[in-house]
């Protein structure tokens, strides 16, 4: 299962439309969720419209939150998206058997069994989430909170039974033409999420669309060889890893 | 703050609204709002059939509420197999859907338990009652743990206490089968929030939350201060420092430290050690209260001497 989570605080202004990019991602089976961060202020009519539209095109959810709710929101969205993706697959099966019905149309007894299956699959399915962070100048004061939220999300993901991996990108890169920069390759190791944004150069432009396309490229090709590599770390004492970053 | 606080749909139904089940046709009339959880809203309702009061939870999301119902059902099945007390078997009354403004809202009906949240109870009865409520709570948790479940979202609001410290856990939205990731949690009481371990459900996860609940009840301002500092510096040692530094927590000190470290062999041991604290706090007093004042001992000795003298004099002549 693949998800992209875009974290931004405004509107894109360069390159392809992010809405189109999200629609493409959905075609490839990648769900796109969007979090808009606001602190003391609003995100603007245009910004919030774009955020909602990207998520809609990407088959995901969008929320606009303050930094204090960022971690919770990211986890809630990831979790719900996993459940929804599985639900959609289950719906397809149900439709084949029962015609045009959803889980909510089933009588409570049968519903109970279906949900049991969905719950079990949600917990055990393998999951990849690529975080794409808007690092334009206005985001700078919020990056600490973003980093913290990523660490917290990592903790939740590594508590799942199924295989979970996270990768982090930011955009734009240092040079024009560098649409997104990989900050953290697929990992399920909490320790590596300690200081993510080291090579950050703030620039004014916000090429959200091109950055999304870049991340999709990475998910398409970059993952195949990596998959399953950083796995052993998850099963070996999580406390050890944790103790590491607590200090 | 709920981990899944951002459910968009709000349900507000006025008093007197009639809720009719779509599948089973059960009829309930709303009396008043009881509370709000992460997955839904709980109302006090009267069943039309028998005029009895129940608690009815309207859910925001069919899957979430069904998942919660599944847990409750599994608990009841397990309880029945084990032959648990009657009162625990009738928790869940029925599950159904309610059509409201063209939308199907899932709901379930459970028994209504009168009681007040832990904080209100302790404020009214005095902090010493944590001894009683705490023991009851641990026993409830122990029951869950023995069946392979972890409560997950343990916090003062989810602990309902009756007049004499009987405890009822409410909101089963966080109940997770052991080994899975905890479904729902609240920052302050979350092991992960304090960098003290994973969010994988195990009994120790509940022990940790229990310890933070105790700290919250007896040393609130210190906990608040520790919780609002920078996340990078927040750690389990902050909690340990509070436990060490506060007089109100002194009787529980050793126990709380073990709970924060997850160092009980099982919840039964946690229960037993808690019981020891509670009884140890009572027994020394019983020993000192009937303690005989010195002057009585002296007077007794004098009277014995006098008696001896009297006897001696009597039998001598």
Automatic annotation (TrEMBL), chain A:
InterPro entries: VWF_A (IPR002035), vWFA_dom_sf (IPR036465). Residues 1-86 form the VWFA domain. This is VWFA domain-containing protein. It comes from Paenibacillus barengoltzii G22.
UniProtKB/TrEMBL annotation, chain B:
Keywords: ATP-binding, Kinase, Membrane, Nucleotide-binding, Serine/threonine-protein kinase, Transferase, Transmembrane, Transmembrane helix. It catalyses: L-seryl-[protein] + ATP = O-phospho-L-seryl-[protein] + ADP + H(+); L-threonyl-[protein] + ATP = O-phospho-L-threonyl-[protein] + ADP + H(+). It is an enzyme of class 2 (transferase). It comes from the Bacteria. The chain crosses the membrane at residues 294-315. ATP binds at residue 57. InterPro entries: Kinase-like_dom_sf, Prot_kinase_dom, Protein_kinase_ATP_BS, Ser_Thr_kinase_AGC. Its EC number is 2.7.11.1. Residues 28-301 form the Protein kinase domain. One of its GO terms (molecular function) is ATP binding. This is non-specific serine/threonine protein kinase. It comes from Paenibacillus barengoltzii G22. The lineage of its organism: Bacteria, Bacillati, Bacillota, Bacilli, Bacillales.
